Amino acid sequence: MGVVQFVYLCLPLLGQYVLADFYSDYECNTPLLERAQLKATSSMPKRGPENAVLYGKPRKCSPPRNNIHGMVPISHECKMSSVRWAFNLAKWEPSYAEISLATCCIQLEEKERLARFVFRDDVKSSLIGRLLLRKFVKESTGTEYDKVRFVRDEKGKPVLGSACPNKINFNVSHQGDYTVLAGCASDGLLGVDVVKIEEPRGKTLGEYFRLMSRIFSPREWETIRGVGGERDQLAMFCRHWCLKESYLKAVGVGVTINLQDVCFKINSKVLNRNGVVDDTEVYFRGEKLDWEFQEMLLDEHHCVAVALNSRNNDKVVFEEVDFGEIVKNAVPLLEQDDDYCNDFFNKCEKKKLAVGSPETIFQVSTGGNAWSAEENDFDQQLIIDLGQVMNVTRIWTRGRPHSNEFVMEYTISYGTNGLDYADYKEPGGNSMSLTDACVPAVNLLTFSLIRRFDNKTRFTIGSSVWSPEESTYFHFLTMDLGGSYEIRSISTQGRRGSIEFVTEYIVQFSDDGEAWRSFTDTQGETEMFRGNSDGDSIHKNEFEVPIIAQWIRINPTRWRDRISMRVELYGCEYEADDMYFNGTSLLKLDLMRDPVSASRESIRFRFKTAVASGVVLYSRGTQGDYIALELRDNRLLLKIDLGSGIVTSLCVGSLLDDNIWHDVVISRNRRDILFSVDRVVVQDKIKGEFNRLNLNRAFYVGGVPNIQEGLEVVQNFTGCIENLYLNATNLIREVKEAYQYNEALRFEKVNTLYNCPVSSSVPKIDNF
Asked: Where is the Laminin G domain (predicted)?
């Protein structure tokens, strides 16, 4: 399903704990300053804070908060003149004349785009999609065929660029043996997706489901795994994926959001070829949306779903069309191109690739195997299908052993559908060429697979920057993001073509724009971030623990010649699942039915409180195992016993009752334990000989009902806990969904609230 071009994966080596490992998320890497408001303590003429955005000027207003979809506003309904077409690619073996005609009936830029595809199958499916679009626009609007013109929006989606008397909407999808189109005469939201139901390659279904666990919510997985045999489970998995893709295509966000936020409730378990099922419901973050989904089977191996942002639409069955029907009223737009047609028939078919040709790149022993192209020119490409969308972080390459044959430089492209590829770019937005002749392992390239920059941010970097009137230590560049965001990294640049740049700076953050905290290192000291070494290059710093804030400000501390900065922040909108505890509250997770017996686990969350002591987390088993986390005299105390009767205690943090948010990470690997609060890390070896933690009673959050073994404080926690993750499970979100669907048998809430009350903070203010 996910295809990445020119990529060879290498698993990272195990080593010391790195806090960033507990927060890694390839979907959270969007530039944030396009819509931010920037202010500064002072500015030189023509060097105001509005010039400090690295990839373009910010808007003058704060970003609008998302609606219930979390993505785009609802448009008009889509009910009129609905069209559903399906083209079976497996039945079409095109002749030379058909390819010649088809490639003459599309726009030149479309034709050039198709020429870049490596496989003949990809050209066929995409070509049919273009022809279906033109057929739909002509028939639904009456526009002359040669007047229909498509352009691509900032997300690469084809949209109608020519003047049109009627409002229409359409969407195309292709996978497996089918290309499909759904359209209607309205400007409502519409998305379509087709999925081939096929077994995963090289994996059992259980392994495949485990790898794809983040795609669906617990409720969806319960539906998928509850339908019987493996074939039925696979079909239900594909059906859920088809529904989710159709919705994401309709709202126009792709897979850049948390896919578990979009949850489907399937009421009709069976699809068929002759009728439409339209009673599936969709929920976004637990709230039901007023959308309709029309589903059916195209054949026993393909399901299709259409997403519509309205109810009570006409049920339209997909009509299979052939090539003759598609080009019946087509008009050639281009001259016949024999070379283009010959190139098409010279392309490989995926199913006919010679076994053992590119596969030899994986044989990295001392043998002489390697992939070599027939021609040594710039048109050669090596494509790797990973079988699913994956987060690729490194690439290793090697030439042919015992020879002088190797590649010294290459580019990388990536994609998620096998058809459309994007070039991997450096932070400045330019395509990156990678030099890899005898590169040692320590110089491996690290990059994010899904790095989506909005086209609006791809400006040529100019010489404009922010510069204060005087270069002193008391200047700040302040950025208001308009809402809470999860900030993963920051890039800076100086004034181009000069020696004006900042070499070191402090990052501070705030929830209200008044009380500020400095980003600290693992020792609790203010971290000094390395800046630039010249005026032209861009330097990027990653935050090991993400910053959660609305306001960010930069305090330059060292510079060359003059303070001059351009900045970009990267991250994503922060999604908070809160639970408030009032000192008599608690949340109980019953472990009697599903006991825990693990050699490793991780817990992370945020909390804030104005009370110095209280029980935060507690659980124990019948064999003497227990884990206890309590706030004692403004510090967090962790105790753990793996059943040996010997308690290991770790303590970290100070002044934690300041009523501002603090980040906590607990991670155990057998007897190795890490405990971190606000990036201050302590590590230890758990005492005793046992490696497993066995818990089979209850897991308590926010307090306990009575005195428990190992606890030193007697009162329950008072304050807020946010985004409590037990391994990969967001426990608070799971509780919300369980109560939403009346499936809360495992949980018991006592005097808890889902929202934190607004209260005045008692912050530690950093002054410089």
From this structure: 576-756
